[in-house]
Amino acid sequence: MDNNSHQNYMPISPSVLTLLSTFKDPILSLCSDIKNEIEYFWDNGLPDYIDSLEKKFANTKTFLYRDETISFYDVFFPVSLKLGHAGKETVSYDDLFFNSQYVTIIGTAGCGKTMLMKHFFLATINETFRIPILIELRNLNHYDKSFTEYIYEHIFNNKLSPDKRILERLLESGQFFILLDGYDEIFSERKNKITEDIDKFIDRYSKNLFLISSRPGSGIESLPRFSNYYVQQLSNDEVFLFIDKVLKDNVDKDLATKIKNVINQSFDKEYSDFLRSPLLLSMFILTFNTYPELPTKKSKFYWNVFDTLATKHDSFTKQGGYQHERKTKLQNDDFEQILRWFSFKSLLDGELNFDASYLNTKLAEIKKALKYDFNINDLVDDLTLAIPIIVIDGIEYKFPHKSIQEYFCAMLVKQQTDENKEKIYKEKFLLLIRSSIGGYENLWNLCSEVDRISFLKFFILPILENFKRKVFDEDPVNQLRKYYSFSGLADSIEFDNDDNIKFAGGDVYLLSFSPYIAIFRYLKIGNLFDLLPSRLHYKQRDNDLLNSINEFILDNIEDFEKISETNEDGEITFDFNVNNHFENLKDTILKLGKAYEEMAAIFDSLNQKLKDLKDEIHIESQMTNSLIDLQ
After folding, report:
1. CA torsion 336→341→344→349, rounded to 10°?
2. Are 259 and 285 in contact (CB under 8 A)?
3. Which of 32, 252, 421, 472 has the fewest Cβ atoms nearer than 10 Å?
4. Which run of H or E residues covers position 231?
């Protein structure tokens, strides 16, 4: 090693070395027949991977303190988790994995999921609990190989043809803690494949612990064997504890007291729920000196943040009111317009983090279309320094939180003409859903808040009415038949050489059907996946129904094998498309599973929702006409 490379080399942290040395010998003893190969595999890639993430997470930048690196545990706030929708709240390992090795953390935008995942990764190292592997699932959207090969290449840093025997023996030890972040960010067209791949990985290496995070509505709630923990809103006491923690080193020693006094008078207000989100509470803290009144709408939080960052941000952490130079000489309105278009375009591209090439290319396109005159590098400097609305994370750029990107996108839609709105809602938003079925409820909530009538007329109602037009039938049998034909719903089934049957993790459906799944969940009309035979069983826990499903599959096993895939372990996978077998199912499994009643209940809820929304639009129209004196 030459002197220059030695100077640039950062030694592995003692905590990571301790962790790996703790588990190395026990694992090598289990693999004595290939000890040398395992040891080489272990020492090349894994230490650098864990050490790199530990350094990245242990000293971090936060929403409030984006200009400086601070200790993670100086700002980490342990939000509460609840098993199911009722149960014991916990964030400790002993409780979290007490009943299951397989856990999901589900929470809305800004609730603290990412901080929790970082906490579990760091705590795993510090407590020598297990060997943590954290994977951002959106990275699999553009990866064509298997989930196992992703770990081989990206975690163990081995680009050669994988020796599966070595990796399998290592993972079979059960000493790993696999954290999978952002299930809702998997593209719809990839979700079935990736979900099934992860499910098989868990089957094979089931001794390890698995933790998956997601926004609600992604379908993660229905993954078999996983225990669902829901992130809870901050309580009144937690709101105050959060404020004290993040402001304990602030230059304004009275700021925490001022904020708590304002908030204490707002807890009984309907809009006080905004305070119970760590992200929105952080926004209120950041903007308090400029906007000390608690906003009643979520969109106002985001605008206050932009205005504060664009005009007075430096005074939050620095004395003297220092302001960064704006190299582009642009005004706030110009920056806001650029950010709206960039957010809109990047969301449609499915990009949450941006490399320099992507950022520069998109900004150049926007500059040309809006006929601005500035240097792109100057604009990037302004967006990251003068108004730090985009942050640098390693070699990538990103918004401090995805929800800020969604806010600017919603505001872009709001300012369009009705003709353009209709095109965006009916075409572009549908593309968003098809790129990722879960995770856009926050965007829809913001659009509903700032552009509600257009959002309902051009986005929600057309989807609901088209579903009714395609599926509704007076005859319940025909109605269910039309539903399965329209949806393309299929159960993903696996069975081995001994004819043991298992419903795999993926739900198969026509990609064009994904908007209906997402919107029905969003409006709480019903879960359209519940009409799959496997879901009918999971929901009812009816052994007679399960026996009927298994009997049907075994009776048709020869037909299924013709359209199935067999992996190297002899496991056969196929998609059990309900529509293709409707005649054989309608008087047995579907009847026993109460599918007709489920469909009727969904239509009852759908019809009521349609009536309520149309009434709302009509009343709004009458009120508007009255105000402008048109009647």
Report:
1. -130
2. yes
3. 32
4. strand 227-231
